[in-house]
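Suppose you are handed only these lines of text.
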Amino acid sequence: MATIGYKSDDEYSTITDKGDIGFVDFDKYKSSYSYNPNEESDIVVISVPFPLIEGKPKSGFVGETVVDSITIENTTNETVELWSIKIYDSKPEDSFTLSLMKPPTACSDLEYVEEFMESFSLEDRMLQPGRPLTVWLTCKPKEIGLHTSAVHFNVGDDNIERLVFVLAEDNVSQSLASSRPFHRNRKKKAPAVDVGFVGGSRPTRDSCSIFRHKLPSYSIPRDVREMMEKRKFPDVIGEGLSRDNYVAYFRTLLSIEEIKMEEDMRDYDMQFVTMKRRGQHFLSLHVPGLAERRPSLVVRDHIFAKLATAYASEIITPYQGYIHRVEAEDVYLKFDKEFHDNHVGGNLYNVQFAFNRVGVRRLHQAIEATESLDGEILFPSVISSTRNIQAAVLAPRNSSMLNKEQTSAVEKILGCEGGAPYIIHGPPGTGKTRTLIEAIIPLHIMRKDARVLVCAPSNSAADHILEKLVSQQNVEVQEHEIFRLNALTRPLDNVNPSCLRFCNVEDNGFKCPLLRELRRYRIIISTYASAFLLYAQGIKRGHLSHIFLDEAGQASEPDTMIPLSHLLSKETVVVLAGDPRQLGPVVFSKDAERYGLGRSYMERLFECELYGSLNENYATRLVRSYRCHPAILKLPSEMFYGGECMSIPCKEDDKTWVDLLPNKEFPLLFIGIQGCDEREGNNPSWFNRIEASKVVEIIRDLIQNKGLKEEDIGVITPYRQQALKIKRALIQSFDWADIKVGSVEQFQGQERQVIIISTVRSTIQHNNFDRIHYLGFLNNPRRFNVAVTRARSLLVVIGNPHIICKDHYWNKLLWYCAENGSYKGCFLPEKVEIVQDDSEQANNWDQDQWGYVNNWDQEWGRVNNWDQHEWGQAKNWNDDGNEEKQILQPASVDYTSVPVMDEAEWSDGWK
Ligand SMILES: Nc1ncnc2c1ncn2[C@@H]1O[C@H](COP(=O)(O)OP(=O)(O)OP(=O)(O)O)[C@@H](O)[C@H]1O
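From them, the structure of the protein bound to adenosine-5'-triphosphate can be written out as follows.
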């Protein structure tokens, strides 16, 4: 008979992995009981109440009663005395009761534990052979979340224990339950098709999409591919980055990154699938997961299809099919005519997806173009750069809106005359973006010849800049002078309608204006990636007087080179704004990331002496933070900025929500909840519907009772599936579609009056996995820093304190709340100091793998990062999670950090 309480860790792991649900720090339970029971008894067999079914605990509804029986069977030939049955330490307190008779499920209060034994007659307590005794265990949950207890049996000379788990749900959490059990398709990946195929028929471009400058193909060099297959690095990587090898170095890293992206795309390969004829010209293919962008496919992407054959040795030619239309989960494809002619209804095909290479090709082209850049841009040196800026004096209108450091930065920027970039940096909310905007406006007014490009890494960040620039205070900026350049693939409905008048929309889509129109605009705003369109359309070096790059710490160096390398002249002023302590670039290949793609251009510049010395002719550090309430900023300021960040909240939001807080003076709240983390279908992303329900409950209170608006609230969570579940619950139950729910990456640079964080993880075994892979929130200081600095007035964290306390940063936050009387929910773990492992920290500063940066997948047709990192599969991982392959180690490079793998491998390791 199974015992819950004494499963070994291995057995337990098997249970949790099978059902892909976890819910409790199991060891914690074992060690928290002082009672020292036997695992099993030789004299009685005791059944397990509320047994786990496929790893899942029994569900009950808040306010309702669930009952289960416990049978105690004497297996000897003699009478055995039952001395006592006790409920030990219910969590939450008093949620379980015992009775001798089966209680009605709608019963109210049952006897207390002590009274329970009194209800036994002497006869009941004498267990006869062959006459099992049945007692009843009842749970009546008052709150959602996991309810746990231990039932102790003192029988004959034995002490026996049964651990009990009941998961209390409500309507919201039940509505989010999975109907599809989690399963993974582990198929052998076929090598990527890159030669020897029959080309397909491409959708024709309209004339507006034909550019002056062509984008070469920049295929992955065969030697790089072969070396990576042998797990060897091309020599240039071993040399380290220098001015001489700059182009070769970064182009090799881009190829390494692309090989990884190709490999990840192989996860979506489909075998033995059919296609339907659609009219005369198309075949349609059903792609499950397409609606969730797994894989992410857009018009003009292509696939490879070949007839499936029973004989592995048979060589079948692949055909390339271009996507002409995407409809829900169907793609409409056009292949070579021969393929269409030979197609018959029942044909089975093997299909491979190819990701859209346009984005990668733009990066190669941008890196190649750095050949003609001034040395001072790429490797500024103290000797060659002797800048002494004649700072302009700012008009009172602008200076009154800025603090001392911000004013100084703007004046320096106005006085700049090209050369090495000017950098504005500083902790979250210190007004880096505001300073950029306040520099652009006087420039626009004072210099009629100024032509400005402003870039941000995501569409939402670029839209935010547009909104600020055209806001009412800035009447000087005329509407016809400003243009928001969008990726041609960006969906129209992704844009706030009030911004559309600054965009070029034709035939229901974005178009790049003609060169002569582009040249007329005085301020152009785009993402880093879309800045490519300016060059492609023919804008020449020197046309732009200023290039402002916001959130520059979030873009990889090749990303940053897209707006710079084609458009810079000696006179162009470049301004970077960002914070290297916040999230960095999103990179898929650990190798590429480690050797340079994971570091931003801005971060690299800080390693140059010129910027290291913080010469104010080159950089300004902002230290006054206007965003967060001082209590919210205190911890990140101490942890990441040596406590030098001064909090100056600019505008007090109405504190209508204050009665949510146990301590009205302390605007942080930690709500401890023991839920369950689950996965469903073939989606590797995690969700926790108990936490999701709590998030919805708080939002409901804020909006319906406290008068907040949807736009005032933001929800941050590290897993895509959790974001989708929360979003779905908010829309289905309340039609609240304007509450932003997203990853930390989607919130970088943004703020809300109230931020709610759902940490999701509730299974101790998964911590290690996340730690190794830099997933979720744990062990990722940058993600922590950004997540907790988005709230202006109120920060609510919902998570399992027993899991979150394993991380140095989250543990500090948990106890910061608890010690200020602002903790609610399940019982707290014991307070322990978690020492940050410096080697891990060093690593983690560079690892931001879970990101989902809006515009990248839209613009590149690139699979979004959440999926990649939850979904990616690589071979050759053994069960311990250690890499079987040899770690690549070029002679001159230190390669000491932990091997990394993705979550899929880990969970498979358990099977
Ligand atoms: N001098 C100032 N006076 C009043 N409010 C300011 C000032 N500077 C910035 N703010 C306000 O502080 C908040 C944060 O500003 P901003 O978004 O520009 O900061 P940031 O440094 O770019 O943030 P992040 O690091 O998150 O990207 C905004 O609400 C902004 O309006």
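What can we learn from it? The chain has four domains: 9-169, 207-355, 360-622, 655-871. The longest helix spans residues 246-265.
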